[in-house]
Each structure stands twice: as structure tokens, then as C-alpha cells.
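DATA SHEET
Item: assembly model
Revision: 1
Owner: S.N.
Input lines:
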Amino acid sequence: MTSAAEELKARILAEGKNLGDGILKIDSILNHQLDTQLMMACGEEFARRFASYGVTRILTAEVSGIAPAMAAGYAMKVPVVYARKTKPVTMYGPIFLETAPSHTKGMEVNLMVSAEFMPAGERVLIIDDFLASGKTLKSLVRIVREAQCTLVGIGCVVEKTFEAGREILSKYDIPIETIAQIVSMDDGQIVLA
Amino acid sequence: MTSAAEELKARILAEGKNLGDGILKIDSILNHQLDTQLMMACGEEFARRFASYGVTRILTAEVSGIAPAMAAGYAMKVPVVYARKTKPVTMYGPIFLETAPSHTKGMEVNLMVSAEFMPAGERVLIIDDFLASGKTLKSLVRIVREAQCTLVGIGCVVEKTFEAGREILSKYDIPIETIAQIVSMDDGQIVLA
């Protein structure tokens, strides 16, 4: 196990809180406060795992995906595009739009990517904070396909193996890499693989 | 002038679009697509400029502040906290809440920071993408003060010197550093300092 994975797992056990309903609070690390050194180490870990895939671009979704995607993009020397959930006035021209249910917001959210930043033919790695239900990731995959890019893989910082995400995404037949895996959150516990 | 500043200015001139009403579209660099190498260079530039201030923590606001704050936090080896605009279910316990008008969204937004991530006594550097009206920054300053932390400075990637931000923030008597300065956007142009 790499040091990024070891440290991430130790921090999840030390600081993570099980809020029930499968909701893990680790906002001291990546959802509100950012451990910048650990995030960059996770980015290097993604770079190592996807080194042979010829990645030319990373796609993520705002908000919590930005930090790990930025870290991975820096390590891989490729640009990052983050799907916007609300349309800023600076977004104009053709966009790709998909919707996804938000686990932590309790509503459908839009995911919007300007077509100019997802040109056809790119080799796209999707990075996000969590692999859980897989629904946000599936919407990002649809954007990659609409854009006529090649999806080369999916990398997430934390996986909840007891949710259906990995199974749902398995049909795309691409590598799915996660740095820490939570196998159970039953009875208020946080059990790592 | 540093290479980060030189490259940023060249990129703004090459890719920036003046959308009128003082709105600058540079979402190929930091608002939708991220140039990860340039962002990290900007982070190192902030680290250099604030090296002597004993910064222990960086505060920014989601969404567009995250990438430059992450870059600066990594270079300075300090954690980043990003104010949330919508309250995720993982946010509970006491929070600091301020409101600010959003220039690009056309409405008031909340800025929320969990008290646990802004403990009293921290030496806080505020980082954001733009210094324009200064209103979001002023709300972040209020959070720093409510938290009984010391505000040591403000760093923004791009400044619009023709807006009132720097003047509004001057009363705090702290250093304000920006990497590229736009002095005019009249007549559809983008004029840099």
C-alpha cells in the first residue's frame, strides 16, 4: 500500500464521522477543509495508477471534485475541467448538460460542461471525491461520450464498496481506481478494507 | 515580473473574452477549465509574496477560489478551508455565516464556514480568483474576524483595478497581492497593467 493510501486511511479512521444513512463526514480532509499535502499525494497516486493510459484531460464535478482533480491534473501535467452545477454568466456557447441526483444535497443537480473544453478525441480520466452510488460519475461518463472523447478510467479518493457505484460503472469496461475503500458503515462504524 | 505573472498575463490576453459590464471570461484558465501547471505556479507566487507572514491557514470561497487556494496552500504547506455556498448534509455544528452578492450569479449567496475549521488564533490568508468589487472578500474577512483569527493578507489571481475592491479592503490595513491587474475593459478591450 502506498503512503498516500496509508495516510488517507489513517485520517479517515481518526477524523471521519459516520452520520448514518451511509453518509461519511470527512470534511476535515477534502470536502470543506483541504489537507493540501495529502490531496497532492493522492493526485500523484492517481498519476501513478493511470500512467500508461495516455490521459490528455481530467473531468470532474464541482465542488468537492476540484481539489483531487487539480492534484491529479498537476501530477499528470494535463488540464482539468470541472462540470458546473449552476451556469455562471461567463458560460456561453454550446454546452453538454446532464443531471444527477445529489446524495448530500437531496435534489437533482445539473452538470454542465462547455463544449469548447471537451473537444472530440481527448482521452479523458474522470476524477471525483467519492465513488458511492455512481450516479454523478455516470453523468460525467455520458458527457465524455457525448463529446466524442475516449473515457480511459475513473479515479476516486474514497470508495464505499457497500454501494452500487462500482457495479453500475463496470459496464464501461474501464479501470476504476480508488485510494481508500470503506466496506461497512453499519452500526455507526467506519470499517476500511 | 515573475514567470507566473508573465504567463498569466499572456494567457489572459490570448484567451480572455470581455463580455461587457466588466465581466471577464477566463474560464479556460481558472473558472471552468483549470490550467493546472499555471495554477500551481500562481500558488508558488502567493507563497513567495506572503512568505514572511506566518500564515497557518488559507480561507477561500467555493467554487472558483478552490484551485488557486489549493495551489497556494500546497506551496505554503498549510490547510485550505473553502466557504460553502450551500449547506451539505455533512456540515453540522456551529458555523460562521455571511452573505455576499454574486457578480456572476446575480443574487445574494451565503458563505458558510464550520467553526471547527476556523479555530481562534489562526493566522489566515484569504485567497480568491478575482479582486473586483471586493464584496465576497469582505464577507470572508468578516468570517476571519468573527472566528477571532488574525487576517494577515489577501491574494487574488486577477485584479480589476477599475472596480472598488482594493479601496474597500484598504481599511483592513493588510497586504493585498494580485498576480495580474486589468486596468480597463472599456470598448470591448482587455488592458493589462
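QC remark: Chain B touches chain A at residues 19, 23-25, 27-28, 31-37, 39-40, 62-63, 66-67, 69-71, 73-74, 77-82, 84, 86, 88-92, 104-106, 113-114, 116-117 (CB under 8 Å).
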